[in-house]
Amino acid sequence: MQTTQRTIEARKSIALVAHDHCKASLLSWVKENLEQLSRHQLYATGTTGHLLAKETGLEIEPMISGPMGGDQQIGAMISECKIDVLVFFWDPLNAVPHDPDVKALLRIATVWNIPVAINRASADFIFSSEQIAQTSEIVIPDYDSYLKART
Questions:
Q1: Of residues 20, 71, 101, 124, which has the active-site annotation?
Q2: What is the pTM of this model?
Q3: What is the mean pLDDT of the chain?
Q4: Which domains are present in the chain?
Q5: d(CA 51, CA 55)
Q6: Most buried of 62, 81, 133, 142 (most Cβ within 10 A)?
């Protein structure tokens, strides 16, 4: 597939997701990065979003719970270029019933080439980068050209 450029604005749309065993870790990380996160548009799967908003006062647009389809909602937003960064603290040691949704979310984030933090260390790296506060360009699939070639 051909590619094209996508501009990610300085004010990012950031999705926050965490498995049950990782919610406390994500909450701690969010509290440590509260000022920086407050400058961006935040989304989260249901339970995580409600927890983070309650504990931090951040304005977070919640999706439904991950197992009920929230992971897929976030994935759809990524494919529509509505999410710029995914912070997903996932638990690789604990199987979850909606594991296919989790894999699909990580796959779609990779396809659309957005930055993905899967733990505290990678989140710290992404959010310490100067690019988190700047407009930047990423390469994404050129889906419009793909559709035109098919007709």
A1: 71
A2: 0.95
A3: 94
A4: 11-135 (3.40.50.1380)
A5: 6
A6: 62
